[in-house]
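# nightly structure sweep
# worker-07 picked up a monomer target from the shared queue
# config: single-sequence mode, recycle default, output format = structure tokens
# input follows
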Amino acid sequence: MKRKPYIFVLVFCCLMPKVIFAQNYIDSIIGELMYSIDRPSRMLLLDTVTDAVQPGAEVDPSIFSAIVLLATEGVANPARSGGRLVNSFPDIRVSACNLLGIIKTGDSKTNLLTVLHYDSDPTVLGAAVRALTNIGLNENDDVVLAIIVLQQRQTGLNRPSNTLAIEILKAYDFFSQKVTRKDPMVQSILAIITDYRYVAAVRKQAANLLQKLLKS
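# output follows
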């Protein structure tokens, strides 16, 4: 029985160099791929950081920085060739937003709010709203207010997104018990109900949510 602590120390000492090597290897891959903006390199970078993210586990800063880059690339740092945007990959931004929702930190929330402010792709915006809902933080109603602004921007479009509206309504439902003032949220839901550019199913979902909020 007395030998167990020594065995543990021996195993730990044997495994520790392998852990350090693995992390250094990941950091090396990320360091190289951060400077390549072609799609294959970005997909490889996404695969690398995805494998490194585990729910509830702390994320290495270099991995987190790479995820933030992928979530905002083509929007925060547009690169053009011959006048054409060459580093905008909405599907990769969606996956990166999902990863930020798994990490569930204040920094994740901050960067997702940046996505809501600057991105225009409805699939990416929907992923960001879903990730913010998964994180669940709403200090001073900052997340709910950002989603309300997003919904107002949608109202100004010729064809607002039905799928994004559904994600917004799901977020409102989740945050309804965590919001300080419900009035702005109610007004936003009313705007969806009365906007006949949305399909009937979306407007019905909004009406049901409004009834639920008014009863609570």
